Amino acid sequence: MRVYRAIDYNDMSRKAANIISAQIILQPDSVLGLATGSSPLGIYKQLIEWYKKGDLDFSEITSVNLDEYAGLSGDDVNSYRYFMKNNFWIHINIRPENTHIPYGAALDPESECIRYDSIISALGGIDMQLLGLGHNGHIGFNEPGAAFDKDTHLVALTKSTIEANRQFFGGIGVIPSRAYTMGIRSIMQSRKILVVANGAHKARIVKEAFFGPVTPMVPASVLQLHNNVTLVGDEGAMALI
User: Fold this and answer.
1) CA 97 to CA 188: how far, in whole Å?
2) Which of 19, 51, 161, 237 sits CB 3.0–4.6 Å from 56 for a disulfide?
């Protein structure tokens, strides 16, 4: 595992964006696994800036997102598709048909999970997967549990995860209690994994995930078994390692 210490959130975002930009330049047709939430926002802003300067080309890139709230259609302002579209996709030249994310409003959850796994498989897997690190160690919406869930599945979100995501809803709508999430198998089969963590409130879970036992009670700990993981964290998140 490679570990990069950043001074602050902006420095973390630049360092992580550099890693992703190198992937795009060296392999223009990469399949990128993308994440939502506050941690990746600075990365997307930096990548957009470099694209506008002419340094990056996303025309051959394909993206697959980690997760989506169950019950929300892609045009719902609280959906992750809406988040990705407005914070990243519409600002670069990625082809809309090359952007993939679970369909939250699917009427048949089991079929939707199979469909999404089939997309990832047909693409040949993920070249580089970007991950944030949840306060309880979740990656995507793979929550702590008795076992690692291998495939895309519908998960009941913990109360702490719901509360942590309340900030993104801005008082509009009810926060969903379930979400579709890419499974551990797809994440672990990614050829490269990039994890970002920021803030002192992440210090404990960073230590547990990367320097503690591998256990499904800390889902991110499974990343210790991957042979190409890069962790980029600011001083607060890296305080205990």
Assistant:
1) 25
2) 51
How buried is residue 70: exposed, middle or buried, by Cβ count under 10 Å (0-12/13-18/19+)?
Answer: buried
CATH architecture, domain 2-234: 3-Layer(aba) Sandwich (3.40)
Q: Return the bridge partners of 67, or none.
A: 181
- The one catalytic residue in 68, 127, 143, 149 is 143
* Catalytic position from the list 65, 100, 117, 138: 138
Rounded to the nearest 5°, which phi and psi values hold at 157? -75, 145
Q: Identify whether 98 is a catalytic site residue.
A: no
135 as an active site residue: the answer is: no
CB of 226 within 8 A of CB of 189?
no
Residue of 136, 151, 226, 235 with catalytic role = 136
Instruction: Please give the model's pTM, rounded to 2 decimal places.
Output: 0.94
Is 67 among the residues known to form the active site?
Answer: yes
Does the active-site annotation cover 100?
no
- Measured over the CA atoms of residue 73, residue 76, residue 81 and residue 85, the dihedral's sign is positive
pLDDT per position in the chain (241 positions), as tens? 999 999 999 999 999 999 999 999 999 999 999 999 899 999 999 999 999 999 999 999 999 999 999 999 999 999 999 999 999 999 999 999 999 999 999 999 999 999 999 999 999 999 999 999 999 999 999 999 988 889 999 998 877 677 777 766 665 557 788 999 999 999 999 999 999 999 999 999 999 999 999 999 999 999 999 999 999 999 999 999 9
Mapped onto helix, strand or coil, the DSSP state of residue 3 is: strand
